[in-house]
Each structure stands twice: as structure tokens, then as C-alpha cells.
Amino acid sequence: MIRYLIAVFIFAFAGTFANGQPVGAIAPSAAVVPQSNAEFPGKPELLRRIGLYEAAARKAETAHTDRKSLVKIYANLGGLYEDAAMYPKAEDAMLRAISLLRAGPQDELAEEIGHLAVLHVAMGELREAERNQMEALAIRESVGDPTGIALTWNDLADLYIKNRQYKKALDYAQRAMRVLADRPDVGASDRIAVRQTLAFALCGTGNCEKAIPLLKDALELSKSSFGADSLPVGIDEYLLGYAYWQSGNLHDAAEWMGQGIARMKVDLGWGHTIYVNALRQYAKFLQKTGQTEAAASADIEVHQAEALVDARSFTKRPDTFRSTE
Q1: 324 within domain boundaries
Q2: Which of 27, 128, 156, 262 pairs with 320 at a CA distance of 20 to 30 A?
Q3: Which CATH number characterizes residue 83's domain?
Q4: Is there a contact between 157 and 170 (Cβ–Cβ < 8 Å)?
Q5: Number of domains present in the structure of the chain
Q6: pTM of full prediction above 0.85
Q7: Whole-angstrom Cα distance, residue 301 to residue 292?
Q8: Backbone φ, ψ for residue 25 (5° rounding)
């Protein structure tokens, strides 16, 4: 499923970091690191998995399968749709999972609502995403889950970065960092994510220099957790380069952004939204630093990738996966 099995890095064009000039800033979203160093599936494999889960959903609905199994199917299907940028279908699948969880474990309900919020950010539905996150926060507060509360704070910080509310983002990110940064019971992906989020909140408030040590720390955590040649490391390298760019260090920016984009291309170059958005931003960097030929080449690759996207995947609602026919 997308979010790299509930942990994807969504690149969202968010703001005005460098000297107040719009630069198409990339902001990290919640739980942003893959849970393993396995290669990200290509589009054919994603579509194959979607087909399997759609068939499983139809069979399960017909057989009146138990709620727990249905939740798993629809949560996974929603993630796969999201990976394939089939956002309306992803939304419907996630809403189905949430409806099944309303009378179930409240921690699982809060988690799935949080996943829906991440999707709504990707869809540009920021008010709906905020509403989702506040509901998830209220649930986690009611069950007394301090780690879950801090994860939602981090998610809210991501949302406010996307919405250019940087002071608010910084407040939530700092709260989350205090709780999650070094807890032994918190997974590596979340410890990395909280550092990335705080870094970009700092960049948003004009303090990118302070963000760089956090991103270096996140990069080392990714290396030790997922392997030096893993996709998470490539993403972290790109983000570190971006922070250098915003800090005015173009030399280090070029090195790290170039290294990161090359690694992302290995797994995501088939046209994944993460890669296309990052490449679009990288082309702007190349243009601004006088590398016009390389910028033009990157722009061509972006346009080719966009031309391959089936527009129906963004707009078409599910018409078969719940069918019992």
C-alpha cells in the first residue's frame, strides 16, 4: 500500500521559504519513511495488487466477512489506490474502513482517520485534513495514548506547513519532537519523520540553518535503519539538499539534491507523484543556478511522466470493488 505501507513521503508544494520568494517548497507528510528497504513497487505491480484487493473486497462483502478482515482489506486497498494517485478511490476505501472501525478499537480508528487526513492533504483538501486530524487527536486524548497524541501533533505540523501556517506548525512540531525523538518504543520511521517535520517548520519560519542538523540526523537514522542505498536515504538526501538551497549554500544543495533525485528515480521514476513533484522542484533549482540544459531535460521528463497519467485515476469513483456481482 502507499505511504510505503503506511509510511510514504508525500512531497507537497507548500510555501515561500527562501527570502520570501515562492520556490515550490517541499514539505514532509506524516510517517514519512518506508518500514523496510524493499524496493517500491512499479505501476504494473501496484495495479496487480489493486486488482487482487478489489477482488478480495467483492468476495468479502458477498460472504459477509467479519469486520476485522474487512477493515484490513479496505485499509490496504485505500493505501494502494493512494500510491497509484487514484485519490477518490482511495478516499472511498478509507472511509469504508473508518465506518467499520467506528464501533471497534479506538486506537485503530484514530490511525485510519490520520491516514485519511494524509490523503486529503495530497488531494489539496486542507480543511478536511485538519478536521480529520483534530478528530484523531480527540480520540487519542480520550484513550490516553501519549505516543499517538504526539504522532498526531506531528501530522498537524505537517498540515500547517502545507498551509503556510509556519508558527503554528513549529509549535506542534516542537511538542512532537519532545515526545517522539528518542523514545525506544517509537519506530525509526516516526523518529525520522519528527525530525523532518521540525526541520521544515524551522525553514518556514526563516531558520533553515537550524534545520540542517535535524535533517542530517534523520539521514543517519535512515541509513542505519533501512540501508545506505535505500529509497528513504535518497529522499533524506534530497531534503537535506533542499534545506541547503534555502540556506543559500548552493554547492551542497546541488550535491545532495542531485544524489537524492537519482536514488528516487530508481524506484519512483515510472511516474510516481513523489518523484514527479521532486523532479519539478529540482528543475527549478537547476534553472535558478544557471544549469539551463539540465533544467530543460528535467522539465521534459516531468511532462512525459504527467502525460502517462490516466486522468481518470484522479477523478473516477470506485464502481466495482464493492460490487457483489
Answers
A1: no
A2: 128
A3: 1.25.40.10
A4: yes
A5: 1
A6: no
A7: 14
A8: -65, 140
